[in-house]
Structure formats: structure tokens, C-alpha cells
């Protein structure tokens, strides 16, 4: 039976326990030439269905030699099923293959697209269902694997992986880098990067990696990391992944961060110089427990990863930076949720926490709903159950599902056992299976927040101008009614268009464009040509495309920059412009 709508994995077949990958990274052809050995939890026989996307399969072998296989035609969303016939008692198979230059998980950067400008760069982004474009495997988070990997790369470069480094050897123009991943992971957490990389220690178990030109600024920005890990351990218990290293990505990285275990990937757009945007690090760190230890069984239960992580993130922000700071973040989150609820007004089924995604690409379903509605639901549950009872429940949930995957039904059963009647009291069915935001959603409150909200579309006074943090600016801009008054826009233009804090800048550009204030089009165009983070691309392209006067500009900009965006971002923006 297939239990994940986004995978051919069938639970009547053998199950992979570990992967041994050898791959040669070829920047000239933008391909990996690789062999992947899949070792099964128990030897078995019969058919094995693996997920692949755009892979050229050359041979499949088992202990007894060549095995018969069929690579079926690709289906939309899923990719191509690789069916292998296994003789009874087969303990492993090895697939020899090549990736495509268009592999959806991989972005190959030309030297000109890097900070250094001399060496090329390669990185992977496997969530949600892109691991199959790099490795043929059972690409479902229900099946966790350990792995070892050997990457052959140009000697001038370094490879990093969300795994433990074993060794590097050099011969001729090549270097071989070996890694092992002792903790079992869902395949979407398989991750690596190759480039001109340097590292600096942040503490005993954390280090930041970046291109040399970025390293100093990155180390300064992320200097709070050890303190964050300590705070998270107080909330959740011991950190189970040994190291929490950070890789500062090139600007085209499509997300704010990706919680790859042992090596979180972070967008360089959070490097504001004043540590004002490091909540992204707190978020990715929290995933070490929620998401990476306790993992959604498939994309239909994504809120179990993200809602829990936003809940944890805001608790940590409160602990580290105070209650006002956390409340501002919650209010910004609520605004972005409301925006996405409006965006999905004709697809209300995607605004449920428990979704049904057969025939739906998880990248198309992506929104703030699992994050912010999930967060609001957990806060409602916390308020109904009481802080202590809820925290005790949360710890028992993390303990019971440690290194396992979970469904929303598992969640319901677990809460019902520990806190009988609580789900009914909070109206859990409406939260989980209803569209939109239930009326009992908690409203974030704080004095600082109330002061910002009271302004509406009036201009901030001298006191605010002198004291506001970027977070207050962001909230003020997000909450302002559209179209904003012309005089307000003109005054803000002088102050914000030159901002280098991306959260503030993009919130401002979005407000200006949505208010028909076209003086900012050149600055918006500049941003779209500089970064590839979808959080910024989507609102700016949407705003430009919804105004008839700038629709052509949106298309021109996309035509010019599409090649420099990650394949996942490219697909999303194609959807926006369609
Ligand atoms: Zn997350």
C-alpha cells in the first residue's frame, strides 16, 4: 500500500535502512555521476518501487549481479517510478545513474553568481520531494535512513554536508570528501553544498560556514548561536544531533533557512549587521526537535513540523529577547497568515491544518497556514490546558515520537491520552479540518505591539523614529491599510527605500506597490535581481503583476532573472505570473 501521496514507496515492499552514495560532482556538465547503494532493514524479494525525477538510470545490481528494472514514464509531481525486481533474500541494491542538469533539488551557480566571483557553487534543497532528483530512493519521510557519502569534487573547492565529516583526501585535480550520518533522517533532510567555503567556530558545538568574503559578517551576525542552543535545551531537553553548524547560502537560496540536521542552511538576507533577523536561526534550531526528531509522516501533516517549530521559536524568542519581541513576531506572523488565507480564498481546502494532497504539488500548497495557523492552534491548546500541563504534554510527545514520523491522527490520539477532553474543549476538529482561522484563535498582545497598531496609516513620530527596531517597522508596514495615503508613502520613501534590512525593505516595497506608488519600481527590480528568497520574490512579483502598469515589467524581470533563481522558486513565480 502507498501511504504517502507524494511517493511510490509501498509498505508491502522492502524498506531502506541506509544509503551509501558515491558521486562525482561535474560542474562542466552540471551533473552528478553516482552510485547509490540502498541497504534494506531486512532482506526481501519481489518488486521494489523507488522515486526518481529526471535521473538517467544506467544499471541496477544486487549481490548476485545485474537486476532487471523498469524506469516508468514520469508522472506529474511524483516523477518516474523505478521498479526493480529483487530475487528472494536480497539485502541491498546498487543503482548506477546520472542526475539531470535540471535536477529540481540542485542549483548550479556560475562563479559570477557567488560572492567571490571566481569558483562555481552547488547546493541542494530536497524538501519537500526533491531528494529523488539527486538519489533514487523511497522519498517519503515515513522511512528514515542513515547514510554515508563520498563526493568527488574539484580540489580548489570544499564540500559540506548535513552529516559528520570523516575525511578529505586529494589526488591530482580532485578531492574526495567523505561523510557519515549516524542519526536516521527523512530523505528531505539529505543536504550538501560544494564551493569556495571557509569556516569559523562560534562555540564548542557550532561553527559558521560561508564564502570567505561573507565569513566575517556571518560570524558576527550569528554570534548568539550557543546561547540559543542552551535556551532550546532548557525547553526541549538535550540536543540530539551533536553539532549545530550553519551554512550561509548564496543569495539565490529559495528559503529563509532549511533545518538540515547538523548543518542548517541560512539565507544571507538575514545578515542585516545588527542581528535583528536572527529569529530565522532560532526557527531552524527549534526544528532539531520539532521536524527533525519528530517528523511529519508526509506533506499532508506539514503543520506538525512547522506549527510546532513556530511555537517553539516564539517561546525561545521570549526567553532570549523578551515577551514584547515575541509578541511582535506573533503579530507579523498573523498578518502573513491573513495574507495567505486571502491568497487561497478559492482553494479553502489548503487552509486546513490536515490537508489532502493527492494530485497537489507540495510546493504549490506551500503557505503560512501550517506555520501560523499551526502556531495559533498550539497556543489555543496551551491556553486551554494551562502552560504547565501543555509543556509536560509537549515533552512527552517529543519523547514518544523521537526519531519517528507522525500523522495528525497520532497527534490527536496522543493529546487525548495525556489530556483527556482537551481537544474537544479547544475545538480541535475545526482547527484541523476546517478552512480559515477559528474564532478562538489567540490574539498576540503587548504594549509595544499596541503602540504600533494604534498608528494605522499615520506617520511614526520622532520618538518612534528614534527607537523602533526593524521588527516594529516590519509590523507597522504589514498592518497599514492599502492603499496607504500618498503623503505617508512619500515620507516613507525617503526613509525606507534605501534600507538594507530585507524584511523592512520588502515589507515597504510591497506596501508601496500595492498602493500604486510606482516610484519604488526600480528598487523592487533591484531586489528581484539580487536575491532568490521566495518570501521576497512572491509578494514583489505578485504586486508588480497585479498592477496593469507594471505587469510587463514583472514578466521582463522574470525573463531576465529566472536562470539565477533556484528551480523551486522558478516554478513558484511561473505560477504567480500565469
Ligand atoms: Zn520551518
Task: Write up what this structure looks like.
The chain is an alpha+beta fold and 578 residues long. 38% of the residues lie in helices and 24% in strands. The chain contains 20 helices and 20 strands. The strands form 4 sheets. Strands 1, 2, 3, 4, 5, 6, 9, 11 and 12 form a 9-stranded mixed beta sheet that branches. A 5-stranded mixed beta sheet has the order 14-15-16-18-17. Helix 12 (447-455) packs across helix 14 (470-479), helix 16 packs parallel to helix 18 and helix 18 packs antiparallel against helix 19. The protein is globular, with a radius of gyration of 24 Å. It binds zinc ion. The site of zinc ion has 4 residues, from helix 4.
Tell me the layout of helices and strands:
Layout: E1 16-26, E2 31-52, E3 56-62, E4 65-66, E5 69-71, E6 80-98, E7 106-109, E8 121-124, E9 145-154, E10 158-161, E11 164-171, E12 174-185, E13 192-195, E14 198-203, E15 206-210, H1 212-221, H2 225-236, E16 245-248, E17 257-258, E18 263-266, H3 279-286, E19 294-296, H4 302-321, H5 323-343, H6 362-365, H7 369-385, H8 387-400, E20 404-406, H9 408-418, H10 422-426, H11 428-433, H12 447-455, H13 462-467, H14 470-479, H15 486-496, H16 502-514, H17 521-528, H18 534-546, H19 551-561, H20 567-577
Parallel strand pairs: 1-9, 15-16, 16-18, 19-20
Antiparallel strand pairs: 1-2, 2-6, 3-4, 3-6, 5-6, 7-8, 8-13, 9-12, 10-13, 11-12, 14-15, 17-18
The structure holds zinc ion.
Zinc ion binds at residues 283, 287, 306, 309.
Amino acid at each position: 500500500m502507498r501511504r504517502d501521496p507524494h511517493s511510490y514507496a509501498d509498505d508491502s515492499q522492502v524498506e531502506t535502512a541506509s544509503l551509501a552514495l558515491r558521486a562525482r560532482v561535474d560542474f562542466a556538465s552540471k551533473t552528478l555521476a553516482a552510485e547509490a547503494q540502498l541497504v534494506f532493514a531486512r532482506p526481501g524479494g519481489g518488486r521494489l518501487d523507488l522515486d526518481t525525477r529526471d535521473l538517467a538510470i544506467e544499471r541496477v545490481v544486487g549481490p548476485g549481479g545485474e537486476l532487471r528494472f523498469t524506469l516508468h514514464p514520469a508522472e506529474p509531481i511524483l516523477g518516474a517510478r523505478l521498479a526493480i525486481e529483487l530475487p528472494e533474500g536480497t539485502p541491498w541494491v546498487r543503482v548506477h545513474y546520472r542526475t539531470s542538469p535540471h535536477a529540481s533539488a540542485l542549483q548550479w551557480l556560475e562563479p559570477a553568481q557567488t560572492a567571490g566571483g571566481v569558483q562555481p557553487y552547488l547546493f541542494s534543497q530536497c524538501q519537500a520531494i526533491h531528494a529523488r532528483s539527486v538519489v533514487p530512493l523511497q522519498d517519503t519521510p515515513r522511512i528514515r535512513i542513515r547514510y554515508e557519502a563520498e563526493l568527488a569534487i574539484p580540489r580548489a573547492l570544499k564540500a559540506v554536508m548535513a552529516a559528520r565529516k570523516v575525511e578529505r583526501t586529494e589526488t591530482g585535480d580532485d578531492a574526495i570528501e567523505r561523510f557519515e550520518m549516524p542519526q536516521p533522517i527523512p530523505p528531505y533532510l539529505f543536504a550538501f553544498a560544494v564551493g569556495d567555503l571557509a569556516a569559523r567556530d562560534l562555540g564548542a558545538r557550532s561553527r559558521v560556514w560561508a564564502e570567505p568574503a561573507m565569513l566575517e559578517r556571518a560570524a558576527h551576525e550569528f554570534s548568539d548561536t550557543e546561547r540559543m542552543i542552551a535556551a532550546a535545551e532548557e525547553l526541549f531537553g538535550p540536543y540530539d544531533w551533536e553539532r549545530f553548524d550553519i551554512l550561509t547560502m548564496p543569495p539565490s537560496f529559495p528559503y529563509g533557512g532549511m533545518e538540515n540536521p547538523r548543518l542548517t542552511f541560512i539565507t544571507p538576507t538575514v545578515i542585516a549587521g545588527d542581528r535583528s533577523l536572527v529569529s530565522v536561526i532560532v526557527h531552524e534550531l527549534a526544528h532539531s526537535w520539532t521536524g527533525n526528531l519528530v517528523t511529519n509522516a508526509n506533506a499532508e501533516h506539514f503543520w506538525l513540523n512547522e506549527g510546532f517549530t513556530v511555537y517553539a521559536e516564539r517561546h525561545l524568542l521570549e526567553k532570549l529577547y523578551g515577551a514584547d519581541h515575541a509578541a511582535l513576531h506573533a503579530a507579523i506572523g498573523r498578518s502573513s497568515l491573513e495574507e495567505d488565507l486571502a491568497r487561497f480564498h478559492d482553494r479553502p481546502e489548503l487552509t486546513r491544518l490536515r490537508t489532502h494532497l493527492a494530485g497537489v504539488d507540495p510546493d504549490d500548497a506551500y503557505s503560512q497556514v501550517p506555520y501560523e495557523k499551526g502556531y495559533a492552534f498550539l497556543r489555543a491548546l496551551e491556553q486551554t490546558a494551562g502552560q504547565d500541563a501543555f509543556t509536560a504534554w509537549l515533552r512527552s510527545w517529543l519523547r514518544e515520537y523521537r526519531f519517528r514520523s507522525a500523522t495528525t491522527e497520532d497527534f490527536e490520539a496522543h493529546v487525548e491520552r495525556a489530556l483527556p477532553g482537551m481537544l474537544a474543549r479547544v475545538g480541535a476538529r475545526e482547527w484541523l479540518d476546517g478552512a480559515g482561522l477559528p474564532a478562538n484563535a489567540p490574539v498576540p498582545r503587548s504594549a509595544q505591539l499596541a503602540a504600533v497598531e494604534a498608528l494605522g496609516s499615520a506617520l511614526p513620530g520622532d520618538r518612534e523614529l528614534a527607537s523602533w527596531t526593524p521588527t516594529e517597522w516590519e509590523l507597522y508596514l504589514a498592518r497599514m491599510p492599502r492603499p496607504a495615503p500618498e503623503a505617508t508613502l512619500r515620507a516613507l520613501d525617503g526613509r525606507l527605500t534605501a534600507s538594507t534590512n530585507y524584511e523592512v525593505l520588502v515589507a515597504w516595497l510591497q506596501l508601496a506597490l500595492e498602493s500604486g506608488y510606482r516610484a519604488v519600481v526600480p528598487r523592487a527590480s533591484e531586489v528581484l535581481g539580487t536575491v532568490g528568497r521566495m518570501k521576497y520574490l512572491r509578494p514583489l512579483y505578485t504586486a508588480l503583476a497585479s498592477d496593469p502598469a507594471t505587469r510587463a515589467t514583472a514578466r521582463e524581470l522574470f525573463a531576465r532573472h529566472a536562470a539565477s533563481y533556484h528551480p523551486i522558486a522558478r516554478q513558484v513565480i511561473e505560477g504567480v505570473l500565469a
